[in-house]
Write a structure and sequence with these properties.
heterodimer; A: mainly alpha; 19 helices; disordered N terminus; B: alpha/beta; 6-stranded mixed sheet; 23 helices; globular; Rab4/Rab5_effector (chain A); Rbsn_Rab-bd_sf (chain A)
Chain lengths: 512, 546
């Protein structure tokens, strides 16, 4: 087979001994008998596959074509689309085509669909459809995870406690210095630099730390703010002016590590008061959730109304529509205010953050709007409703006729098949009755109450309180459970209902 | 096994752990690639993740105190140090830390000690330590893992091992570890993976034992990355270069993701002819709906069609993007005479006669229309194919090529040292056994269907053998320290030194076949995705010191 691309032999040639056997059956028999040791090898499998393919190819192409011709056609198949933009043939060396190589629109003469292209994609489609039933459907799941939070927190506690102790000690010390210092500034200064005192305070640390924890946070915050205000310039001055010429009356000297402790404290305090943006943003998210929930409900109503159905009233749909519109406006306004304007002074990232929030809001709105169907005018709706009524009437009529026909055929079938003793009960059986005589231990589920479905939406639009809605649902379940004789469920549901009513009273919702 | 879906679940869970409120995602270079292939940016923003930052960004990051921060990084020493700095002066309110791999206890302790302000809320290991390029493909994105002696560098070896471990944990598999016997790196990797699996036994507690991990090296098949490709994805990578599912055309960055792009998903394995046809069909459907009558025959027609009818863009979503991609491909096919080049490549690697091939290469090397890259690939393929042919003229061709590619002779030398006959010890171009001959016989006839896609990667033989449960244990033995798995339902193939989209094509096909006729599921993992340009650059880097 090393004969090069031109040396292709045709016919039903045995791949092992290269004998032409004339037909597929003869070749298959020959391979099975004369080369049995390879009966299950890929070679034979592939050979079979190949013949299937070859057969298909023969169907696809004119039988008269020889392989060289086929090859030409197929390769032009691959190139046709490629060539249509800039070239018309593979053979570009021929000079007469050079003018066609200009990238202008040169239309190909042969735009017909490619055999192999089509058949291949069809094969792929088929392959995708023909799933093997034995393979369980693949459900991706999250992989292994490992949690280190507890270990981390244990490690942190050890080192952070130490820090808290140091900070609190420092603050208490400063409290003493600022609020309980002697009036004489000279004396005060002495105190600060007095190593004996510092040592004494050091000893105090453990004790005062415990006391500090009891102190209210507000007081500490206040203290830290008051003190660090003084402290800002201190580091510089403590380095620069050792001679003590500056007026130390209102100043304290603090070493660098202590200052950083204080600053951290201050930052933590700040973090407790989040900026206005956070609460505005929270409002925005609530609105976005609301509008995302409202719009499918509206879509359902709108399509029902446009069908002329009487399930929802036109006015309630209009009401929801305007509600959505109001929320849209608010979302637009809020997200715009979050984005702020160019003149506002904020960092690059902060600006980007706000822009992206706005982007999400706008995208959600666009999504909602693009899914919103219009509503008909009152007159148009009347027309639609009339049309729908007629259609339903017709359908009911048809269904009745079908049911009648089915009933008569079924009756006839039962009569004709009385030889089997189980035939009659089987025909009578409804799905649930097949469980008669066996206590059903599991699998009882109440169905959503039909009465709720049939409620005209007008009532739902007034938006019952969720608790109220829940109560109605549970009531429905309760009656179903009672009817089904599920005592356990009845008990549980009754408990549930009681809890709900208590909750409703707490929310001051009217309970009947 | 769907690694893309798994990674999406992991990242979704990270966001869920952080809870509501505005969030920032802090990543490193590697995890940025992971997130960007698993989620569109807008998708993340709808999960309230509005900012994306890099832990190692040289510009100091802005402090935004009201943000929650999700940290998703590899647990490297460098990242731990940076993270400690971050925690000492926190820029955000709360931190939720997710390591992409197994982290050292001592590193976690170090972090805890730096967290003086108690800003960290959670610390976890979520095992996504490679880029999920598609369902069945994971790449580390490591450009050149080899050193000048064609061996894996120590850092590459460690990184590859870590990625493999994370991959098995993500898929909840405890595989038996097999490797390509002829390659020492593969053996070493297999040993280290098996060892780590033993050591981390606890992590593998709930993992299934139904999987085989096979570690192979690129040097086994250097022909595949040197060929022009004609299936969509492979072709785009070969001609335009795909970087983490993104491609740049005319300065425009286009995302090619099977996740977000139906047309791409359907056509990713289609050949060049089919894609044009499929775009045309969509345009015709649009025309019949909108009562427009316009003749769309060529790519240029398609382009003007997209410009003229913005509604089409709206309706067909991503299709118009593919018009520009296909347009660019088609332009390159024309200007670089790729059909001619490809036909010669195919006969070089499939069944070409030596003297004929040599003549045709000489002609093309002197053709100015043939790009330097294509000239180089032809000479390299010739050298690889006819290396042991007594009458080969490798030196003659190198001399012609030198005018275009000054490093011609060092490239050929590197190629033959890296993946030549003496090193690979396999029958890359077909052997003399009856089965091999039959395969070639069939290939020859199949080639009738399409002359440009006759060649199949060597990996396909391996996949076929494994699918039928007939692994050649001489070539791919189980590592001594790895445990035996009684029944193999899944195969993870890790290809060291880069894989090609052509190989992915066959992995996809095998997984599709599985739906119909059974066989194991296959996932391809690799250090990086190769095209000819990348492969030649890799050879150049390896041969640099010689």
């Amino acid at each position: 087979m090393d004969g090069g691309s031109t040396g292709i032999r045709q016919g039903f040639i045995c791949p092992f001994c290269l004998v032409d056997l004339g037909s597929y059956n003869a070749l298959a028999a020959h391979v099975e008998n004369d080369h049995p040791e390879d009966a299950n090898t890929p070679a034979v499998e592939q050979l079979k596959g190949f013949f299937d393919k070859a057969k298909r190819s023969i169907k696809r192409f004119d039988p008269g074509l020889d392989i060289e011709n086929l090859r030409g056609r197929v390769s032009s198949g691959l190139t046709a689309v490629a060539s249509s933009s800039s070239m018309t043939q593979i053979d570009e060396t021929s000079p007469k085509q050079t003018h066609q190589n200009t990238p202008t629109t040169t239309r190909s003469n042969d735009p017909t669909p490619r055999f192999e292209a089509k058949s291949k994609s069809r094969e792929r489609e088929l392959r995708q459809r023909a799933r093997r039933p034995e393979l369980p459907p693949y459900r991706p799941e999250i992989g292994v995870t490992q949690k280190h939070t507890e270990y981390y927190v244990r490690c942190r506690e050890a080192s952070v406690n130490d820090l808290a102790v140091r900070t609190n000690t420092l603050i208490i010390r400063m409290d003493k210095l600022i609020n309980e210092a002697p009036a004489d500034p000279a004396k005060r200064k002495g105190k600060l630099t007095n190593p004996a005192l510092a040592a004494a305070m050091q000893d105090e640390d453990e004790e005062s730390a415990k006391k500090a924890e009891v102190r209210s946070l507000e007081k500490l915050a206040d203290l830290a703010q008051r003190t660090s205000g003084h402290l800002r310039g201190l580091i510089g001055s403590s380095k620069g002016s050792r001679d003590g010429t500056e007026d130390a009356a209102e100043q304290l000297r603090v070493c660098v590590p202590c200052l950083s402790l204080l600053e951290k404290r201050e930052l933590q305090m700040e973090a407790r008061n989040p900026p206005a943006l956070v609460s505005i943003y929270e409002r925005l998210i609530i609105l976005l959730n609301e509008i995302s929930n409202l719009s499918p409900a509206y879509a359902k109503m709108a399509s029902s109304i446009n069908n002329g159905e009487a399930l929802y009233s036109l006015s309630s749909a209009e009401e929801i529509r305007s509600k959505i519109a109001r929320k849209q406006q608010e979302i637009d306004l809020i997200s715009k205010s979050i984005e702020g304007d160019e003149t506002e002074n904020m960092g690059f990232r902060e600006r980007q953050l706000r822009k992206n929030i706005r982007f999400v809001a706008i995208q959600t709105l666009q999504n909602v709007i693009s899914n919103m169907q219009g509503l008909p005018t009152a007159e148009k709706y009347a027309e639609l409703a009339e049309l729908h009524r007629r259609k339903v009437a017709r359908q009911v009529e048809e269904q009745r006729a079908i049911a009648q026909r089915a009933a008569t055929t079924a009756a006839r079938a039962i009569r004709s098949d009385t030889s089997s003793p189980e035939a009659i009960p089987a025909a009578k059986m409804t799905p649930s009755s097949s469980f008669i005589g066996r206590s059903v231990d599991d699998g009882w589920t109440p169905e959503l109450s039909h009465s709720l479905h049939n409620n005209p939406f007008a009532e739902q639009v007034e938006q019952k309180h969720p608790l109220e809605e829940q109560r109605d649902i549970i009531k429905g379940y309760l009656s179903q459970a009672a009817a089904a004789g599920r005592l356990e469920e009845v008990e549980m549901l009754e408990r549930n209902l009681r809890d709900l009513e208590i909750a409703m009273r707490e929310h001051q919702i009217h309970t009947p | 096994m769907d690694i893309l879906a798994t990674v999406r679940l992991y990242i979704g869970e990270m966001v869920a752990q952080a809870g509501p409120q505005m969030k920032v995602l802090l990543m490193d270079k590697e995890t940025t690639g992971i997130v960007s292939c698993a989620f569109a940016q807008s998708e993340m923003m709808h999960k309230e993740v509005y900012l994306f930052e890099k832990l190692d960004s040289p510009v100091p990051r802005e402090q935004i105190k009201h943000l929650k921060c999700i940290v998703f990084v590899r647990p490297t020493q460098e990242n731990i140090t940076l993270l400690c700095q971050e925690l000492r002066t926190p820029k955000y309110a709360q931190y939720f830390i997710f390591f992409s791999n197994i982290a050292n206890k001592s590193d976690i302790k170090q972090l805890a000690e730096a967290d003086e302000e108690e800003v960290v809320r959670e610390v976890h290991e979520y095992f996504c330590d490679g880029i999920p390029l598609s369902k069945h493909l994971l790449s580390i994105g490591m450009r050149n893992p080899y050193d000048a002696s064609f061996r894996l560098s120590t850092t590459s070896l460690l990184h590859i091992k870590q990625t493999i471990i994370a991959l098995t944990l993500a898929l909840k598999k405890k595989p038996t570890v097999c490797y390509q016997r002829t390659n020492e790196d593969c053996e070493r990797l297999a040993g280290e993976v098996a060892q780590t699996m033993r050591r981390e036994d606890g992590l593998y507690r709930n993992c299934k034992e139904d999987t085989m991990l096979l570690i192979v090296d690129r040097s086994e098949d250097c022909a595949t990355p040197l060929l022009n490709q004609w299936t969509y994805e492979a072709m785009v990578h070969e001609l335009l270069g795909i970087q983490n599912n993104r491609v740049t055309i005319d300065g425009q960055n286009l995302v090619l993701s099977e996740l977000q792009d139906d047309f791409y998903e359907k056509n990713v394995s289609a050949n060049f002819g089919e894609i044009g046809q499929n775009i045309k069909t969509l345009m015709e459907q649009f025309q019949s709906k909108t009562q427009i009558h316009k003749n769309v025959e060529s790519i240029a027609d398609m382009k003007s069609f997209v410009d003229e009818y913005p509604q089409f863009k709206k309706m067909s979503g991503t299709v118009s993007k593919h018009v520009s991609v296909v347009g660019e491909l088609s332009r390159l096919v024309g200007t670089e005479s790729l059909l001619e080049v490809s036909e010669l490549e195919q006969s070089l690697v499939v069944d070409g006669d030596h003297s004929q091939c040599l003549d045709r290469i000489r002609v093309l090397l002197n053709n100015r229309k043939i790009s330097n890259l294509n000239a180089t690939r032809l000479v390299l393929l010739y050298a690889l194919r006819f290396e042991s042919n007594q009458s080969n003229d490798i030196n003659g061709l190198i001399n012609i090529l030198k005018q275009r590619e000054p490093a011609a002779s060092s490239l050929v030398r590197s190629l033959l040292r890296f993946g030549g006959a003496t090193r690979r010890k396999n029958e890359l171009f077909g052997g003399q056994s009856a089965v091999e001959m039959t395969k070639r016989f069939i290939k020859g006839l199949k080639g009738v269907e399409n002359v440009y896609t006759q060649h199949t990667p060597f990996l396909l033989q391996t996949i076929d053998a494994i699918s039928r449960g007939k692994v050649n244990e001489q070539l791919y033995p189980k590592h001594a320290s790895s445990e035996f798995v009684p029944r193999v339902d899944n195969i993870i193939i890790f290809m060291v030194g880069g894989a090609t989209y052509q190989e992915l094509f066959h992995v996809r096909a095998a997984n599709e076949r599985r739906l119909q006729s059974g066989g194991p599921a296959i996932l391809l993992a690799t250090t990086h995705m190769l095209n000819t340009k990348g492969f030649i650059e890799q050879l150049r880097a390896m041969g640099g010191g010689q």
